[in-house]
Amino acid sequence: MSDFNPLISRAEALLLRLESMLPASPSLPDWSAVAWRWQHNKGHGYLEAISHPHQIKLDDLHNIDQQKAEIVRNTAQFVQGYTANNVLLTGARGTGKSSVVKALLSQFSTEGLRIVEVDKQDLTDLPQITALLRARAERFIVFCDDLSFEAGDSGYKALKVVLDGSMAVTADNILVYATSNRRHLLPEFMAESLETQHLGGEIRPGDTIEEKTSLSDRFGMWLSFYSFDQDEYLAVAAQWLRHYGIEEFNELARAAALQWSHTRGSRSGRSAYQFARDYAGRKMLANSNNDKRF
User: Fold this and answer.
1) Which of 67, 75, 134, 201 could form a Cys-Cys staple with 171, CB 3.0–4.6 A?
2) What is the largest CA-CA distance in the chain?
3) CA angle (147 as vertex; 143, 153 as ends), nearest 5
4) Is 201 helix (H, G, I), strand (E, B) or coil?
5) In degrees, to the nearest 5, what angle opens at C-alpha 230 toward C-alphas 256 and 245?
6) Rounded distance between C-alpha atoms, residue 97 and residue 260, angstroms
7) What is the C-alpha separation between 196 and 22, in angstroms, rounded?
8) CA distance 118 to 156
9) Residue 199, pLDDT score
10) Which range, of 11-20, 183-192, 248-257, 267-276, averages the lowest pLDDT?
């Protein structure tokens, strides 16, 4: 028997190495959380609770009142168990598309709203994600931020199926909210426009264009966001400065805000927020050093 001991030891060591290489069993989600991120570990997807979700209030978002009203109404219908639509938010960068979705959590989490953030490359896991969420009592928004596809992306068809393209009935407690800088989510090329037919004055788009518009068509609500004009940008910058304890929006602050927008090449809520963080921080540092420039 002693002759087999080295062989047994080697076999046990090999089994241990193989076990370490096997995919770990997915842990049960922490359902006490209000937001999760879909992650992967050794080939298994799982819901990772976000312990400190970004706390944004709808009242902090300005110059998008119409968009806020529409998405709040749609979400209120959803959390109360009424019919509601998937939402596609498109438009210029930094104009509040992602922020307004995140702010819904502070408005509706006490009514059972939950958010699951899914990256574009993980959209092929949507059937697995919806299977986890379908039996829950909570109402879930599957949030896809900065969504766009290239030709051949596998997540494109997976998202189409979840939105409205499967034999299975879509779950009543799940909606998809997605943001994108472009309405049709896929790149469009000049050659595709040549497929368009003109028949007796009627314009018929080619099959390629029809396919590329079919995904955005599956979102029942479209919300468009636009860059701010100068006055709107300055108003938001002043609001964020007040948020950081600077009540006076004087000529010095105004000039600094305009200079910030010029260097960033953008007048948006994001650039106003970033300016306010920079300006307020510099002012507090200057005050602590008795610097009289602010």
Assistant:
1) 134
2) 92
3) 115
4) coil
5) 50
6) 21
7) 52
8) 13
9) 53
10) 183-192
CB neighbourhood size of 25 (10 A): 10
In degrees, rounded to 5, the angle at the alpha carbon of residue 84 between the alpha carbons of residues 82 and 90 is 160
Rounded Cα distance, 177 and 164, in Å: 14
pLDDT, position 186: 57
Q: Is the pLDDT of residue 210 over 80?
A: no
DSSP 149: -
Q: Percentage of the chain with pLDDT > 90?
A: 45
Is the whole model's pTM more than 0.70, yes or no? Answer: yes
What is the reported pLDDT for 159? 78
Residues 108, 72: Cα–Cα separation, whole Å: 9
Tally of helices (H runs) and strands (E runs) in the chain:
10, 9
pLDDT at 264: 86
DSSP bridge pairs for 179:
89
Left (φ > 0), alpha (ψ -120 to 50) or beta: where does 112 sit? left
Which parts of 143-202 fold into alpha helices (H)? 154-164, 190-193
pLDDT at 65: 92
Q: Residue 93, Cβ neighbours under 10 Å: how many?
A: 14
Dist CA 166 CA 162 (whole Å): 7
Say what the pLDDT of residue 141 is. 96
Three-state secondary structure call for residue 179 = strand
pLDDT, the chain, mean? 82
Burial of 67 (0-12, 13-18, 19+ CB in 10 A): buried
The strand ranges marked E within 53-111 are 87-91
What is each CA distance from 42 to 24, 25, 39, 69, in whole angstroms? 6, 9, 10, 42
Please report the pLDDT score of residue 54 as a whole number: 83
Chain centroid to CA 23: how far?
28
